[in-house]
Specification:
Length: 571
């Protein structure tokens, strides 16, 4: 092959890459007569087994996604998604190979908030879905269409956002499950518009028949619950389909197992000897995430105080809670595990025990796989001659699913300014101070991973639970001794056990007073291991509401004040 031919081939290749396909995305006036703000998301998938928007993930099989912010987009006005749009996993449209694709677009709508702190920001208000851009009511989307990207062609694809996600029905009360929703004065003042908190309350058996009984309360923290789950008054049908397969557990028929556990919980809940109490799952979705992490935050507002001083007292008033710290307990896993421990630390007198399973990082010097205070980069371990990517997720054998960089770049494609509605962005939104633009200060450069040490120091002083316990033990120690229980698999998928090891070292060694705590690990157990070594995790993860009962009762018996009500709720 001669030099001129090689040069010509290189030139043709350059031209092909210089003229990638572009997409023109718009919505008709039938969907909105007014201009809209938000983020246009364009998804390319290689299969049509499900809609492209449902195929975006951290898995290696993920669909490709690109994102573009829009402000005041008018009906019929086109947003152009071209080579300049940021994408994941491929950075640019010019990197997309030729071939056939299924394409779909979504407009994730933003609303304008004029906050008490003087900042005006545009954010996706939760609309009852738990901050999910795929299903958020009112979000516009297109029907999937098949396209063929051809080599060297100057293609322009037109996409119409002519579909809209429907509203989500409110859950209905039953004999045992009640729902409550209040407008929060504190949050309304912060956000400059009406803001609400909700809860699903599981009532004890005999609630109506014992009007003089008052009950202990268990606050079950976790991600956004659309209703109280894991409780069913009817057993699963004998002929229920069991062909569903859960790859994580290598198990067929998991839906039936879940249904059976829900019915078994109902039978325990209504049995003669089961203790009578209230179990509460709270709804505190917000413009950044499906829950607030139940603490006060510069960017999210005073959710901690709103929950503790507005929502819980109202629940205890309506449903005859005892309403004292000795009769309140909190538990949860993952996000809920962090929240359970944080509630015990930040409101030490308000709870008599926390059970934190697989908690999000509770020590930031083990922030998943790196030290937020000493490392310079979140994405790479750096030496003088090489950079090694940091793993983001693994399975129980240690096989890596994705890197920290890949997860963060997926979030960056989904939303700028911490608006992806996903994990690293919500940590940033909760823990960071407010930036000059009104959005959370970046803990690290989202593109490069370079850590900002000044923001890290703010995180340390305000939300690093190990640091806060160590710093304030003289005050907190007497209030939390005997109350802290932590459980984590030693092969947690997100490396959350690393921070638990550090917390365990502190709790074992601290004196005056001693912590009298409990920390346990599941051998080769993955995320959501919650402390029961006698059951496989696919079972124990369904039993949060029963597995800590014995420890709660023992704690009440040994710590309740004199003349406390230990009888009215033990019928």
């Amino acid at each position: 092959m001669n030099y001129r031919l090689l040069l010509l081939m290189g030139l043709l290749s350059t031209i092909a890459h210089a003229q990638p396909v572009t997409f023109s995305v718009s919505f008709p006036a039938t969907q909105s007569k007014t201009a809209l703000d938000g983020r246009v998301l364009l998804i390319l998938a290689k299969t049509d087994k499900t809609e492209p928007r449902s195929q975006v993930s951290d898995a290696v099989e993920t669909a490709q996604i690109f994102g573009v912010d829009v402000d005041g987009l008018k009906p019929g006005q086109a947003t152009i998604v071209d080579a300049g749009a940021f994408g994941y996993p491929k950075r640019s449209l010019k990197d997309i190979a030729t071939g056939d694709y299924y394409v779909q677009a979504v407009l994730h709508k933003y609303e304008t908030f004029k906050r008490k702190d003087g900042h005006t920001v545009k954010l996706p208000m939760d609309r009852g879905e738990g901050q999910n851009w795929r299903t958020a009511p009112g979000n516009l989307f297109s029907k999937p269409q098949k396209i063929s990207i051809k080599p060297g062609a100057n293609q322009a694809v037109t996409i119409s956002l002519n579909q809209v996600n429907p509203p989500i029905a409110e859950p209905k009360d039953t004999k045992f499950i009640k729902h409550i929703r209040i407008q929060s004065k504190r949050l309304t003042e912060f956000w400059g518009r009406p803001m609400y908190l909700g809860a699903h309350v599981l009532l004890p058996a005999g609630f109506d028949e014992h009007p003089d009984a008052h009950y202990p309360l268990c606050l079950f923290h976790g991600h956004f619950p659309d209703d109280f789950s894991g409780f069913s008054e009817t057993p699963p049908p004998a002929n229920m389909d069991t062909t569903d397969y859960i790859d994580r557990f290598h198990l067929y028929g998991y839906k039936k197992i879940v249904a059976q556990e829900a019915y078994d919980f109902y039978k325990k809940w209504t049995s003669k000897d089961f203790p009578r109490m209230l179990i509460v799952e709270i709804q505190h979705a917000n413009p950044y995430y499906d829950d607030s992490y139940a603490v006060n935050s510069e960017n999210l507002g005073p959710y901690g105080d709103a929950i503790m001083y507005e929502l819980l007292p109202e629940i205890e008033k309506q449903f005859r809670g005892i309403g004292q710290g000795w009769a309140r307990f909190t538990y949860g896993g993952s996000t809920g595990g962090w929240e359970a421990l944080a509630a015990q630390v930040f409101y030490p007198d308000a709870f008599n025990g926390c059970f934190a399973a697989c908690p999000d990082p509770i020590a930031f010097d083990a922030y998943t796989v790196f030290n937020l205070y000493k490392d310079k980069n979140a994405y790479y371990a750096e030496g003088p001659f090489r950079r090694t990517p940091r793993p983001g997720q693994r399975n129980y054998l240690g096989q890596v699913k994705c890197t920290v960089e890949e997860t963060n770049h997926r979030e960056l494609a989904l939303g700028t300014h911490s608006r992806s509605g996903d994990q690293f962005d919500i940590w940033e939104a909760v823990y960071s101070p407010v930036g000059s633009d009104g959005y959370p200060k970046r803990i690290w450069n989202k593109l490069t991973g370079d850590i900002d040490p000044t923001v890290a120091e703010y995180w340390r002083e305000h939300y690093d639970l190990l640091h806060i316990l160590r710093r304030d033990w003289k005050i907190l120690g007497p209030k939390v001794t005997g109350k802290i229980h932590i459980y984590c698999g030693d092969m947690d998928n997100y490396y959350l056990n690393n921070a638990v090891y550090l917390m365990e070292d502190f709790l074992k060694s601290v004196q005056n007073p001693s912590a009298s705590s409990e920390v346990a690990y599941g051998d080769r157990a993955e995320h959501c291991w919650n402390g029961d070594p006698t059951q496989p995790n696919y079972i124990s993860r369904l039993r949060y509401n029963t597995m800590y009962i014995d420890k709660i009762l023992k704690r009440i018996e040994t710590s309740a004040p004199k003349n406390a009500d230990l009888k009215s709720w033990r019928y």
